[in-house]
């Protein structure tokens, strides 16, 4: 469940399951249509659960007591230590059916739901996009029909515990199978689609379209968290001469070898892509201008010293910039392009930074 603290390091999909919160009491208590009015009684919630934080904000006067798990909370209600226990409809119904059929009951329902989505690390935008599409692919009307069919209860002493429990089991199994099938189908379909839409066919690194997408994401993260972000733009010196001398096929082989060399000498968190022709772009999250400069100098040296399959010596020119606060993506790329042009103008095979 998404809460502000978790959102600092994770992105959450739209909820795939919404389970109501309910109040469990002893059977002699009345049904409460407005749970927010219960301010003079002790109510238990499970420690660490997201909805506990939400309830504290919405009902600041409610006397909430933390318990380790549902069983502990219901025992405290049974023994009269507290008035009620708040948990999800699914968990409460299961515990009552299994252990407290005639001793406890559901005596009220909250407007809030336990909204369950899929949380993905915020440095994995592609994985987040896949999960988001998987959730969105479930037709909304179909989803609502499923929830309406299986999560439908009567809150009274004649509550049909056993019938609900088995329907809930069926719902869980059905949703599990549905999500598993959707994931399998998406994985199978998206593997080829992802390769075609996000990578350069020749070199296997990211294409320009994907680099643009990553840059937008990284800039948004930079503006939010103020963590350093730099890019390196490199251009192969005299690449036309390679094509003219050895032919375009050999030129393609050189690009493939160069891509592999660069990929093996940058971090896993860095993103390498073909910017166009003989130009390559490297996106370096959490990297200031000094460290980015060192990376570019190291790559410059590696390229000069590397023995390619049919060329004994080759060089490249580099432009390096670090993003400024509230800088647009267009300005960012204009500066790195200008830095690369300076390297070319000053004789090639060199690194230029733009502060």
SSE blueprint and pairings:
Layout: H1 4-7, E1 10-12, E2 17-25, E3 42-46, H2 50-58, E4 63-67, H3 70-78, E5 84-88, H4 89-99, E6 105-116, E7 119-121, H5 125-136, H6 140-150, H7 161-198, H8 208-225, E8 229-236, H9 239-246, H10 248-263, E9 271-276, E10 279-285, H11 289-305, E11 316-322, H12 329-345, E12 351-354
Parallel strand pairs: 3-4, 3-5, 11-12
Antiparallel strand pairs: 1-7, 2-5, 2-6, 8-10, 8-11, 9-10
Q: How does this structure look, described?
A:
The chain has 355 residues and is α/β, with parallel strands linked by helices. The protein has two domains: 17-116 and 137-194, D-Maltodextrin-Binding Protein, domain 2 (3-Layer(aba) Sandwich), CATH 3.40.190; 208-354, Alpha-Beta Plaits, CATH 3.30.70.270. The protein has twelve helices and twelve strands. The strands form three sheets. Strands 4-3-5-2-6 form a five-stranded mixed beta sheet, with helices on both faces. Helix 4 (89-99) runs antiparallel to helix 7 (161-198) and helix 5 (125-136) packs across helix 7. The two termini are 42 Å apart.
Into which percentage range does the β-strand content fall? 15-25%
Strand order of the largest sheet: 4-3-5-2-6
| Count of domains | 2
* Classification by helices and strands: alpha/beta
Quickly name the level 1 CATH class of the largest domain.
Alpha Beta
Total strand count, please?
A: 12
Helical amount among residues, as a percent range?
40-55%
Shape by Cα distribution: elongated
Radius of gyration: 29 Å
Main sheet properties: 5 strands, mixed
Question: What is the CATH topology descriptor of the largest domain?
Answer: D-Maltodextrin-Binding Protein, domain 2
The CATH superfamily label of the largest domain reads Periplasmic binding protein-like II
Low-confidence stretches: 152-159
């Amino acid at each position: 469940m998404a809460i502000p603290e978790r959102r600092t390091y994770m992105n959450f999909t739209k909820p795939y399951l919404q389970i109501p919160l309910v109040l469990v009491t002893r059977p002699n208590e009345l049904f409460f249509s407005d749970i927010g009015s219960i301010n003079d009684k002790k109510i238990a919630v499970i420690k660490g659960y997201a909805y506990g934080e939400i309830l504290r904000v919405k009902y600041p006067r409610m006397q909430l007591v933390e318990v380790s798990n549902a069983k502990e909370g219901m025992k405290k209600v049974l023994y009269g230590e507290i008035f009620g226990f708040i948990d999800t409809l699914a968990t409460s119904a299961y515990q009552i059916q299994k252990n407290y059929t005639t001793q406890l009951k559901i005596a009220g329902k909250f407007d809030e739901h336990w909204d369950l989505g899929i949380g993905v690390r915020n440095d994995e935008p592609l994985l987040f996009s896949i999960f988001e599409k998987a959730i969105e692919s479930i037709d909304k009307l179909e989803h609502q029909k499923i929830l309406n069919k299986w999560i439908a209860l009567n809150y009274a002493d004649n509550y049909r515990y056993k019938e609900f429990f088995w329907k809930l089991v069926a719902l869980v199994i059905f949703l599990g199978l549905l999500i598993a099938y959707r994931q399998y189908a998406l994985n199978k379909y998206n593997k080829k689609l992802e390769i075609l839409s996000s990578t350069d066919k020749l070199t296997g690194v990211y294409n320009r379209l994907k680099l643009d997408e990553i840059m937008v994401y990284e800039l948004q993260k930079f503006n939010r968290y103020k963590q350093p972000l730099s890019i390196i733009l490199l251009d192969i010196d005299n690449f036309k001469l390679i094509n003219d001398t050895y032919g375009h096929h050999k030129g393609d082989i050189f690009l493939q070898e160069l891509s592999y060399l660069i990929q093996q000498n940058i971090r896993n968190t860095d993103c390498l892509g073909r910017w166009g022709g003989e130009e390559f772009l490297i996106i370096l999250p959490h990297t200031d201008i000094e460290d980015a400069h060192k990376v570019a100098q190291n790559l410059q040296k590696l390229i000069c010293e590397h023995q390619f399959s049919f060329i004994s010596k080759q060089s490249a020119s580099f432009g390096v910039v670090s993003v400024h606060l509230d800088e647009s993506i267009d300005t960012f790329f204009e500066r790195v392009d200008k830095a690369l042009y300076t390297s070319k103008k000053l004789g090639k095979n060199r690194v230029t930074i733009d502060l």
